[in-house]
Design a protein that fits this description.
By secondary structure, the chain is mainly beta. It folds into two domains: 94 residues, no CATH class; 338 residues, Beta Barrel (Porin). It has three helices and 22 strands. The strands form four sheets. It has a 16-stranded antiparallel beta barrel. A hairpin with a 2-residue loop joins strand 6 and strand 7.
Length: 457
């Protein structure tokens, strides 16, 4: 008489004995919703993703955890290690979904002993921005990264091709607008010390005709409380030279520092809570060399003169964010966050955003919505009627006045079945901006489109 096959454990159940060999692929497709206990032997069976095809590889979960790698999972055992690239269509190259997936599976698989595998990634993208205020930006981007042992190295490059004839330009110093090219390049290196501890550093340089900058930063992270909490701290600084087109003798200095702290807490096998705090200080020449402020006689609407913009030479910014990442079902993920912002110029802002993404076959679809509202800076006025004197601090920057914005977007990603490890993504976002107290521009609508190609090996 044929022996009945052992049933697969239910999702969320504890495994204390060797399960049916055919269950393992199901556990992988379900993103490790089964709680494998340390010391349990698993028979991987004949997995189509195993390098040692045709072999049964018994695997024992170790008690001493080692961090998961990004999307390769090598499991130590008595046979050929498995090479786990994740279920098809999950969209591992999307940063938000990757963070959600790793945070979800970390608590249940953190007891695996995982030698770190080599990994290479490359990508390119084209971003296009155009709005109703006659601003167009084309931005090609290229990036690549490699993981070797405990080390990670990345590099990126981008160029902005800008054409602008906005209200800011036409009503200020450049009535015919301008065309400009900006270049940026950067590199990042990191080291995984094991045990959930990691350190990385970055450097970025940017160059354009009237602005040159360099920035660098460091980030450290570690896991504790049975790997249910990840703490991340970072610090950085930047230096810049601000110039003015057509004036070779005009150059001003600008600098800045930034610090951040984040805690990511696993609330359940399907939910992660992030809390983030960031503080930034900008100093030096913070005005725009192209922006002029109109001055009027008291009680008059007739412009008498215009003077250069002048804002304080220091600005502290504080931001606090609370974010919830939730797996709603096997293929559906959600994210919602709230951000509070305040600075020493008197600007207070609130941002509420949400994202939903789901996978269907080789496709991943995401929908984004975001709302933003802010108050005015202490010294912002739409009408400076102070003649014969000019106020000490004055600006014509509409972004320092009261405003609100609304964004909606749709993005899709296709995992190419014939080319394993490659994907193509397309997306579009519409952004509406409403300026509540600006004399020349009341609203603006922008369309942002993206096409990207990614490769993973």
């Amino acid at each position: 008489m044929r022996k009945a096959a052992k049933a697969c454990p239910a999702a969320g159940a504890a495994v204390t004995s060797t399960p049916n060999p055919h269950c393992f692929a199901g556990y992988r497709k379900g993103l490790a919703v089964v709680d494998f206990r340390p010391g349990t032997w698993l028979n991987a069976g004949v997995s189509p993703h195993a390098r040692g095809k045709g072999r049964r590889t018994p695997l024992k979960l170790e008690a001493n955890p080692v961090p998961l790698t990004r999307n390769q999972l090598r499991v130590s055992g008595t046979g050929t290690p498995l090479h786990w690239r994740g279920p098809r269509g999950v969209g591992w190259r999307s940063p938000v979904k990757l963070l959600i997936l790793l945070a979800i599976i970390a608590p249940t698989l953190s007891t695996l002993s995982l030698p770190i595998a080599a990994e290479e990634r490359a990508g390119s993208a084209l971003f296009v921005y155009t709005d109703s205020d006659n601003v167009t930006v084309w931005k090609p981007v290229a990036s690549g990264s490699v993981d070797v042992g405990h080390a990670t190295a990345t590099a990126h490059w981008s160029t902005d091709f800008i054409s602008a004839a906005s209200v800011d330009m036409v009503s200020a110093a450049s009535p015919h607008g301008y065309h400009e090219i900006r270049n940026e390049a950067g590199a990042n290196g990191g080291w995984d010390f094991g045990g959930g501890k990691r350190l990385s550093g970055s450097w970025t340089v940017s160059d354009e005709p009237d602005f040159r900058s360099q920035s660098f930063g460091f980030t450290g992270s570690w896991e504790f409380w049975a790997r249910r909490v990840t703490a991340i701290v970072g610090a950085g600084a930047s230096v810049a030279d601000v110039g003015r087109a057509g004036d070779a003798g005009f150059w001003r200095n600008r600098g800045g520092e930034q610090a951040s702290a984040q805690a990511s807490t696993v609330l359940s096998p399907t939910a992660v809570l992030d809390t983030v705090w960031t503080v930034t200080r900008a100093s030096g020449y913070l005005s725009s060399p192209y922006r002029f402020v109109r001055l009027y006689e008291p009680g008059s609407n007739v412009q008498e003169t215009a003077v250069a913009e002048q804002v304080p030479n220091q600005r502290w910014r504080h931001a606090a964010t609370v974010r919830l990442r939730q797996r709603l079902s096997r293929a559906v993920f959600g994210l919602v966050d709230y951000r509070f912002y305040a600075d020493t110029w008197g600007v207070v802002a609130h941002t509420l955003s949400a994202r939903a993404s789901w996978t269907h076959g080789v496709w991943t679809t995401s929908i984004d919505v975001r709302g933003y509202a802010q108050g005015r800076a202490d010294f912002y006025q739409s009408h400076y009627d102070t003649l014969p004197q000019a106020p000490q601090w004055r600006t014509a920057d509409k972004e320092l006045g009261p405003m609100w914005t609304a964004l909606g977007g749709l993005h899709m990603e296709w995992q190419i079945p014939q080319l394993p490890g490659m994907h193509i993504g397309v997306g579009a976002d519409t952004l509406y901006m409403r300026y509540l107290d600006h004399p020349f521009l009341r609203e603006r609508t922008a369309l942002m489109t993206t096409v990207d190609l990614g490769w993973l090996r």
